[in-house]
Amino acid sequence: MPVLPTDDSLPPANEVATASPPLPRWARAWDQLMASLPVLLMALLAAFTYWLVRSTPVPEAPREAAAPRSDPDYVMQGFSVQHYSEAGLPGVRLEGREMRHYPDTDRIEIDDVRVRHTDEQGRLSVATARQAQAEGDGSEVRLVGQAVVVREALSPDATDPLAQRLEFRSEFLHFFVDDQRVESDQPVTLVQGGAQIRGQALRYDHSRRVLELTGGVQGELPPAGRRAAASS
After folding, report:
1. Contact, 183 vs 209, CB < 8 A?
2. Is the separation of the CB atoms in 175 and 212 below 8 Å?
3. Helix, strand or coil for residue 226?
4. What PANTHER family does this protein's entry cite (predicted)?
5. Distance separating alpha carbons of residues 205 and 198, to the nearest angstrom
């Protein structure tokens, strides 16, 4: 005859009601993955931030503006440049064997230079030298080496000394073309007619009717007969 279990050998009623079978392996793996997902996301975010910092270009420090070039940026051989006035009339004409432009000072350097200019009265001025430094528009020329500036006579019968032919010779002449001025701080020889006058400095300003030779001025005048012939 079978023996019935006593109440003590039976499992508790609540244990019977809540007991469940063990989870399959894939479910346990999924639970572990979900539990570690926040950690993985934080690691990925940190790695992305590090890559982003390394990949972002670092701004360069402000650079100083490059100094203008001290060597010529262009050279012209056997050149001739004609400038015109605002009214369209021929103004200054620059010619030379070679011209070099220096961008650092925006100056023009010319070898074997020749400058021609006709003023409003029709008076021609011609300047020559072994070398010259000029402004871009030719309004101002520094003549160096066997410099000569010739202002032709306003008319063949001009009696005004400043309207007659004037020739200046020096190793340096500063020729202000538009202003009709010639200056030098070096020995100068003035030639007018048959006369030659030498000085240590020159200031000639046609608009103000000023011609000054200073510093031990010496002159050579032609004989009286030649002076009379030249003035007749």
Report:
1. no
2. no
3. helix
4. LIPOPOLYSACCHARIDE EXPORT SYSTEM PROTEIN LPTC (PTHR37481)
5. 18
Of 183, 187, 188, residue with least CA distance to 206: 183
How far does CA 209 lie from the centroid of its chain?
A: 37
Identify the H or E element spanning 47: helix 25-55
pLDDT tens digit sequence for 49-93: 766 667 666 666 566 655 555 678 888 899 888 877 777 777 788
pLDDT score recorded for residue 200 = 95
Distances (CA, A) of 173 to 86, 135, 204: 27, 15, 11
Q: How confident is the model at residue 36 (pLDDT cuts 50, 70, 90)?
A: low
The ranges assigned to domains in the chain are: 74-231
**More confident site: 190 or 45:** 190
Q: What is the total residue count of the chain?
A: 232
Q: Is 90 exceeded by the pLDDT of residue 129?
A: yes
Nearest in space to 128 (alpha carbons), one of 104, 100, 148: 148
Which among 82, 222, 231 is positioned nearest to 157, based on CA atoms?
231
Which residue, chain included where needed, has tokens 């030249």? 230
**Cβ neighbourhood burial of 85 (10 Å; 0-12, 13-18, 19+):** exposed
Picking from 98, 80, 100, the residue whose alpha carbon sits closest to that of residue 90 is: 80
CA gap 181, 186 in Å, rounded: 16
Tokens representing 52? 């982003």
Per-residue pLDDT tens digits for 68-79: 556 788 888 998
**Rounded Cα gap, residues 29 and 192, in angstroms:** 116
* Residue 146 pLDDT level (bands cut at 50, 70, 90): very high
Say which CATH topology domain 74-231 has: lipopolysaccharide transport protein A fold (2.60.450)
